[in-house]
Specification:
With 679 residues, the chain is of the alpha/beta class. The protein is 30% helix and 20% strand.
Amino acid sequence: MAPDPDEDVPDWYQQVATRPIVSALTGRQIGRASHHAAEWATAFEDDDRHLDRMPTYVHYYPATGRISAEHELPRPGAESAAYRLDAHGSPGRLHLAMRDGTVRPVDEREAGPWLRRRKSLSTLPKDHWIDFVVCWSGVPGDRTVPVPPNTASDAYAGPFVPDPLSSLSLGQQLANSTGRGVRLSYGSQGTRSHDGRYTRTLFADAQGRHRAWALFRPDPEGPDLDRLAAVAGLSPGGGEVSDEMRAGTLRLVRALRLTFGHDVDDAPDFAELLRGVAAVDHMWRGDTDFDAAGPFTLDLLNRVVAAHPEAASGVDRAAVRRVLAAAADHWAAWPGDDLVGFVEVPAIEAAAQWMRGGDLEEEAVTALDLSGPHEMGEPERSRMFWARVKAEEILSAPGTNLDTRVPKVLHLPPGTRPNGYRGTLLDLLTRAFAAGRDATDPDVAAAYDLDESGVYATTGVRTTGGDGSGDGRDYTAERTPATVDLARFGTPSGMTDTPWADRKGPAPYLVRVTPDGNAPDVLELTFDGETYRVPIGEFLELLAHDTSLTGKELDVPVVLAFSAHDGDPGDLAERIAQRLGRTVWWTGFPADLSPPGAPGKPFLTLRTTPDGAEPDANAWQKARPAQATAPGDAPRPIQAPLARPAARPGPHPDDDDDDVSEAAARPAPTEHGTRGRDE
């Protein structure tokens, strides 16, 4: 698989460790893998040799260790015509094993040229396609702020992709580099064997929601792309086609594929669809109000379609076709007309007015963690603009009650009138969307407000327990020690070991918090001298976006300790377990920290309750995440194509079955994953 030694390529090309995948069924090579020898022998070789006998997959639920029923894998051709490429991966990166024992993460810019030179790929028969056995192979790099510390953890929620029309995934780069169809995943994937049967696995998220497979095909290039540029009206036809025209045409083609599916190019009306989406692009670029808002985006197309009368009954494939036909007719009748002459988009117009006011750069520096306005380019401006559009849509949506939304999200006293705070809330929501938060949820938006206020900056605490160390959060008003010993706890009768004291690996994640004595569903969080009353839903989102917790594997439990005998710690523990996909240890007894002068590191001490109940060695209880009987779908980093109008035979990447079979009643056998490694 290595390039010829005399090729003019980077030195690292010669140092990649790869090995053939040889079918146990036919004895023929069916692909190539990049894993170090020991890992290959123990975790990958046997299953990889059966990749050509795995037409099905199961969903694997890492929070519960269960599996679903089997489903047919999507495929762009016969399974026997697939070439398998197996390596570790993470969003936007391929993790290649090197001969010196290290791992080299390469992004799509490096991976594409390296893959293009693989002789085992370039010499494949024309009808062969590529099975990309690499985690997160269908999504570009994560643009969340701050960047998650560990994308290989099962707790990782997935990447934020602000502009999928410009950011290429590894799978798309592989398709472009080889000119072949590719099967890939929007999450971690692996293989599984049980009783001689081999299947693929697709990892659900921490909440048990299903992730998806996808099929990609190469982007058009060369004369094909130039022809499409002429069809779209982006080039004069018959004349020279500039790089800018080609890039603009590619954006339109990708938008259609993400709306209708990867095979829309084969649709009889593809040329009409392309002319329609190009008409929207012409109207967008011709409107001087949007000069600084960036290029045509999927956000723009979705909003134009939803706002047009042809989609009044709902957005589906037929409605999009009608809107694009209307756009083409409008542009033909009134060439040069502005976007607002075709459709009413008040949120987009409001965002443009905000952008002209000069606040965008200041907000971007904060939201995107830039060193200054000089780092602002077109991608950043576009990202901020569409974040503002989303914020405007929330506050102008029918039924939005600013009297409750403003004080909740901004943590103002109850009853605060929203007058004068709407602009503040708009700015906060804009920054939250730009950073990658789903601020349509008021709890998520409110948690982001606390994040900006410094809730994570001053509440951290180190922990020890068992044979490892860890960390946690102390949201109480008490003075927090540098380290808390979680291997033991105190009671009125003396010291005893915690029930998790003998666990291996990192110490549990401590969460100390004070319940509100007057409201059972409210907690009091104190930091930087201020106390905030936080509903439980918001607190769950605060934990779910805490990078010091989300970077840990799901087998690291949470230890929940209330500082007062109020509220319902058991209920909160159950809700934390379900939201985070983690085991939560909790107690119904109020917990303090050991007083100064006690031997050793500070530890938790449990107090007698006001009604006289006294804690003993069995004071701690455990809440575990429950397996959903009908799991939903996890949010996709890149939008799923609209549903097809009717069922048709054969598997399709957008089809899924939420059935959790009897296999879900038992733990899954060991999974052989291809999850990436953070180097």
